[in-house]
Amino acid sequence: GQNIDQPTEMTATEGAIVQINCTYQTSGFNGLFWYQQHAGEAPTFLSYNVLDGLEEKGRFSSFLSRSKGYSYLLLKELQMKDSASYLCAVRPRGGSQGNLIFGKGTKLSVKP
Amino acid sequence: GAGVSQTPSNKVTEKGKYVELRCDPISGHTALYWYRQSLGQGPEFLIYFQGTGAADDSGLPNDRFFAVRPEGSVSTLKIQRTERGDSAVYLCASSLGLLGTEAFFGQGTRLTVV
Q1: Are A42 and B107 within 8 A, CB to CB?
Q2: CA of A96: how far to CAs of B32, B55, B60, B65, in Å?
Q3: Residue A43 half-sphere exposure toward CB, CA atoms < 13 A
Q4: What are the pLDDT digits (tens) for B74-96?
Q5: Is the pLDDT of residue B58 over 60?
Q6: What is the pLDDT of residue B99?
Q7: Number of cross-chain residue pairs from A and B with Cβ atoms under 8 Å apart
């Protein structure tokens, strides 16, 4: 079966660093995405990993280990506006470009 | 337009009625996707268009759901004989159609079946 696991909720302090983990079990692998979704709004793209390693983009970094079926999203210098849900999504091998399997999302609350 | 536009933003319909949800993708984006999202869940894939054709409709839950994209731009998701379980936010996204390129989501249509 297809399964994406992420923590349901996390809390962190403004200015700190937080790591949101995602583990997946899918029928093969053809890329992993992270999206940010503020309450009541559309998801917005954060990162894409298809090879092992770390991808850095400003305050956000995403890591992938295909052998472990594991990814994490790292957010540095947290700001209040980073309070949102963070969605991990995997494209399984053989799946079409749009056929992403999403996790339920991790709701991050940033406190002052 | 500047982004993906979905109309209506909210739709309340009675059980058994027919509804159409519209998606206007970003100009020039050949790929278009429909997802639906229930409260507390991640988006669930429904269908993917490349141009005018449905490249993958494996996510459509049953034959009450149908989507078209006749000219390769605007798409309409059609739901017949709506059921209360169809209540969700229906999200549309578009992209340039290349693997790995980011998909831009619309604000969604919140469908409530009463």
Answers
A1: yes
A2: 12, 7, 14, 19
A3: 33
A4: 999 999 999 999 999 999 999 88
A5: yes
A6: 66
A7: 64
